[in-house]
Amino acid sequence: MKTKIRVIIITLLSTFLLQAQQQTKGIIGTNNWMNNWTNFNPAKMEYSEATNIIAGTIDKDTRLVKRNTYQLVGIVYVTNNATLTIEPGTVIRGDDKTCGTLVISNGAKIVAEGLETDPIIFTSNKEIADRRPGDWGGIIILGKAPINFLGGLHTLPFTLDPIINHYGGQDAEDNSGILKYVRIEFAGRKLSSEKELNGLSLAGVGRKTILSNIQISFSNDDSFECYGGDLNMNNLISYRTTDDDFDFTQGAQISISNSIAIRHPFSSDISGSRCFEVDSYDKIQNTDMSKKMTKITASNITLVNLEENNQGLVRESVHIRENTFFSLTNSIVSGFSPFVLLESNIGDGNDNLSKMSFKNIIVNNCNGGITSESSSSDVTIQNYYNPNSGIEYSKYKNSELFTMPNIKGNPDFRANVNNTIAIGN
């Protein structure tokens, strides 16, 4: 009997160790979690005309219901610790003439919890033939979680009410609500001559906020941008954004998993568009260096360029600036030039390179691996990261690497089970 028990224990332990060594790379799931609630061709989607207008300030608990279609007119602020609740299946259309924008202020909440079969949709109010990136503003959430800006508080670089436009604090557990099974389409317009809005701007947002199953498509700037804060995010989709897919700054402490950026070279910005743009600050003189620097932990990520003929404006998939911590594991990166670009200030010393790790990654059809803006550091950098890192360089077509990468159908960007490298065997 004891012998049988020992055999069972040894078998279970061996299985566990084998699985640990053979972890599937890229986005994962028993089923294709991108089914049902996503839309990769929202320009052709017929949405109902608006029946109700949302404008001004929401300063008490308010509920938006599925039976209505709403038009977001001007900048709409949720204030006074109010909660804006949105029913599954509700459609909110951002007004193009007034740059409809939703701002969840410090202390307020948004509870937008859709369903896989009934997502909540924020989209353009334009007709099918006229929808473009930047038709309306986007969604902004201002929270009380820490940032590393001097003084611990800051304002966003958008034209917002100065009384409301502030974020940051000491509460890493701050709760700004829920965004789940939500689509955000054609956002990213300028409120004024200042910079474009993002699809979703998360400023000082705390870790009790739930962000899961969110698709941002055709944003005219970044899809997701985190200004400081402390968040766990999963099952995010960025599709055909003009600028960066995931942008992190001001000491953001972020765990992001099972998420995907799908880039198209002719949707990119000439200034340089990346899947991950990671820095700790814009100007070091405005930064409290005693506070946490940006730390991003990313796992089971898929970063893919749909254009396989080296055309367009797609550059590196990941750009990392100095004094930043970044970890990428169990992921697939396909079709970039190069895979990673490090700011020249990082140099090639072990102290700085040890702040970043890259483990168990397929780097497919990328023109270069982990490189520096200062090419003289490249050899040292590659010698530091490549040995025993589990980075595998390959030359597969997307159709060989992924299960069903046809964006015109029901795409499935999980690793192709017939590709033994992708599934970890």
Give a structural overview.
The strands form two sheets. This protein has a 24-stranded parallel sheet that branches. It has a two-stranded antiparallel sheet with strand order 25-26. It has helices spanning 2-21, 350-353, 378-385, 398-401, 420-423, and strands at 52-58, 62-64, 69-78, 83-86, 91-94, 101-104, 109-113, 120-124, 138-142, 177-185, 200-203, 210-217, 224-227, 230-239, 246-249, 253-263, 276-278, 295-305, 318-320, 325-334, 340-342, 356-364, 370-372, 391-394, 402-404, 412-415. The longest helix has 20 residues, at 2-21. The protein has five helices and 26 strands. The protein is globular, with a radius of gyration of 22 Å. With 425 residues, it is mainly beta.
Q: Which stretches are poorly predicted, pLDDT < 50 over at least 5 residues?
A: 7-21
| Helicity range | under 10%
Strand content: 35-45%
Q: Count the helices. How many?
A: 5
Gyration radius, to the nearest Å? Answer: 22 Å
Q: How does the major sheet shape up? A: 24 strands, parallel
Q: Alpha-carbon distance between the termini?
A: 33 Å
According to DSSP, the number of beta strands is: 26
Structural class label: mainly beta
- What is the 3D form? globular
Overall pLDDT metric: 91
Name its key features.
425 residues, mainly beta, 9% helix, 35% strand, globular
Task: Write a brief caption for the model.
Helices cover 9% and strands 35% of the residues.
Question: What is the element layout, followed by pairings?
Answer:
Layout: H1 2-21, E1 52-58, E2 62-64, E3 69-78, E4 83-86, E5 91-94, E6 101-104, E7 109-113, E8 120-124, E9 138-142, E10 177-185, E11 200-203, E12 210-217, E13 224-227, E14 230-239, E15 246-249, E16 253-263, E17 276-278, E18 295-305, E19 318-320, E20 325-334, E21 340-342, H2 350-353, E22 356-364, E23 370-372, H3 378-385, E24 391-394, H4 398-401, E25 402-404, E26 412-415, H5 420-423
